[in-house]
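If your schedule permits, I should be very grateful for your opinion on a structural question. I have a record of one protein: its chain in single-letter code and its fold written as discrete structure tokens. Kindly check, if you would, that the fold set down in the tokens agrees with what the sequence suggests. I remain grateful for any guidance, and I place the record below:

***
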Amino acid sequence: MNKKQLQPFTPILYIVISAFIMLSCNTNISKHEDFKPIFDGKSLDNWEGNLNIWTVENGIIYGITTPKIQLKKNTFLIWKGGTPSDFELKLEFKISKNGNSGVNYRSETVKGIPYALRGYQADIDGKHKYTGQNYEERKRATLGYRGEKAAIYSQDKNYNGGSLRANITKNCWTHRKVLQTLNDSDSLKAKIKNHDWNQLHLIIKGNRLKHYVNGVLFSDVIDKDSINRALSGKIGLQVHVGPPMKVQYRNILLKEI
């Protein structure tokens, strides 16, 4: 190595490096600023649901059932701010051991049933048997189990508008193909924090539906079912029928893409 190679950086090089660092920082800030809060941390303004179940305290949405307050049907806290198509959604959740919940998106309300939704759901449960999978509420049931990249297809061409139940076996849509194993389900389960806050990140674009938990891809669904898929719809938080439970949500951020 000669003396020229040992010379320190020139002032011009320092300026270039500094500019690059500043640009990188500004880009990261810009990306963060693209997300907008859809929960104000103080109230349920712009949300609708059963207020016997849903409350707000200290920046947290609570969904609670008790022995005296039980459900006959699943209920949702529904965001009234729009029906997003392509978007990213970030939030944090915490759930009791016997809890059963989920985050619905691209969903529609159900006629005759107050605060019910029909559509895609990022599943969440307290025992973390299903957390992170893609389940379609009141429709095609399980589309992608945890640890799967799966393609979903339409039922037979002679389908004439009959019940979707004929195409569901063991609570799973039968017209699907596993394209890839992302990771072992139990290995992914180990990434979930018990009795603590976890981050859910949904990246929903076109017919590609990705569910991340704590920064790890848990399920990846490509919905090729042109008959039944939805390309836009409502967002909602679920409390499921079952034993007394508590689910908590906070820091709910949305970015339409």
